[in-house]
Amino acid sequence: MTRPNTISIDRAAPCPAVVATAFSGGKESPAAYADRVLTLHAATIHAFCDAHADSKRFDLLTKTPGYADLAKTLRMAAIEVKTAARAPHARAVIEEAARRLDVPSVDLYQLAHAPAHLVAQGKWRPRSINVAFLQDDATTRAVPRDAFQKKLNAISSWLPPVRDYDVPGLHHLYSELGTLLPAYEKVGDGVSAVFKRSAAIVQSWSDALTNETQRTLRGLRHTLSGGHVREPKSYKFSDDDRRMIFSAAKVLSHHVGDIDAVITQLRAHKEGDDASSIHRLIAGISEGLNDVAGFLDGFGRWVAAGSREDAWRTFTLHIQTNVGLEKWGQLASRASVIAMLPTLEQVEKTGKAKVRVNFKLTPIDTLVFSLYMSGRGGGYLLRAGYFGASINDFEHEIRFQVPGVMNAALGEDYSYGPMGCLGYSPKIGGFASNLPVNIRAGGYLKVYHSALRNLTAPTRRMAEEFTIGTSLAREAVGRFRDQRKGRAHVVPVQDGWPSAQLWLVARGELKHGERVRQSMAERRAQIERALSSSEARDTFVARAEEAGLSRDEANALPESSLNFLRDLDAAIAREAKEIDAMAHLAAKNQPFSLGELRRRLTNVRRLVGNFEFVDLMLARTLGEHPVPRRAAAV
Question: What is the distance between the alpha carbons of residues 447 and 55, in angstroms, rounded to a whole number?
Answer without folding.
Answer: 25
